[in-house]
Amino acid sequence: MLGMSRGDRFGTHRVLEPRGTLPQAAWRLDNDLTRMFESELLLEVEALNIDSASFRQMEEANPGTEGVAQQILETVAQRGKQHNPVTGSGGMLVGRVVQIGSEAEPAATGIGVGDRVATLVSLTLTPLRIERVRSVHLRTHQVEIDGQAIVFASGALAKMPSTLGEKVALAALDVAGAAPQVARLIKPGDAVLVLGCGGKSGLLASLAARRSGAGVVIGIERDAVAAAPAQRLGAAHEVLIADATRGVEVAERAVAAAGREFDLTISCVNVPDAEMGAILATRDGGTIYFFSMATSFTRAALGAEGVSRDVTMIVGNGYCPGHAAATLKLLEEEPVLRKLFEERFG
Ligand code: NAP
Q1: What's the pTM?
Q2: CA separation for the pair 137, 4 (Å, rounded)
Q3: Which residues' Cβ are closer than 6 Å to ligand 1?
Q4: Which of 3.40.50.720, 3.40.190.10, 3.40.190.170, 1.10.8.60 would CATH assign to domain 178-340?
Q5: 75-132 pLDDT, tens per residue?
Q6: H helix and E strand count, the chain
């Protein structure tokens, strides 16, 4: 490698267009990884964990493993990052640290060359090169590749735990923000609704709600197969089979099951149009945590206004301090949760 320039900690030196934006907002990043900056870590990538909303969209657009692989290669070739142009979402990755720049803290804190790590920042801001897609796993949304990626100093990494299978840890870390954020939002006795309660984030959020002292937890899943893991986990007092995109119906059924409107609603579905069910089910003064990347700000804001509902709506910031460790701890402490993750991802 040639002598290194400093770069900046947010990675703006990698933005090709439009100039002046940050890497997440950028259309295209510089993914020439033969030239490194001091504010960067270089990773040899083993697998991508594609965001659920993104994977679903790609599967619908061009089905099968070949179709998904082709779309990933095209996106990375066009944009220098796996930033789905339709859903706007990415995912995260697992790999091994190859090089650490002298100004790569705080991302590099506690991390050494050779460590196996998962990125805790989105693929939508991660410069990525793919030499080859080795395999696409339709069930787990994980994609094994040969490639390299960059993490900037302002990013975050988690060392892969030795106590959990790698694919299981990767799946949990992808949604690491969900459970800790729910634990922060909940008050003891709250009525909590979880849309998409049988998925990764839905299971974690339901359990966090229950452990934090929710009075009643109601989960929604669209069919019996997807509801089964939530029923086995037992964090929800009741799991209803309903379509979260049918706002009036889903809210009526959920409120009837809880016996009251909800103090806190968490949207963990991977499809668009679930805003109104969450809004209608939540009481005036209550809170909605839109973890789902398929959420539309416009639909949520105008939808709540349109039905005169005074709810606080929180964008699903994937980060909160200690989120990776808290999520892995939950898997260690809760054997049923761990088994469900191992069955699906192990
Ligand atoms: P997941 O494991 O695929 O779970 C999504 C669940 O929603 C599935 O069980 C799915 O059922 C269910 N579902 C889909 N459509 C539904 C409907 N109409 N009614 C009721 N349930 C429905 O996804 P995940 O990984 O937990 O991710 C959930 C969402 O969070 C996605 O939108 C993802 O992009 C987003 N996400 C956000 C962050 C963040 O930081 N905010 C980070 C990662 C992911 P089926 O299996 O039957 O489809």
Answers
A1: 0.93
A2: 37
A3: 51-53, 89, 174-175, 177, 196, 198-202, 220-223, 226, 243-245, 268-271, 291-294, 316, 318
A4: 3.40.50.720
A5: 999 999 999 999 999 999 999 999 999 999 999 999 999 999 999 999 999 999 999 9
A6: 11, 14
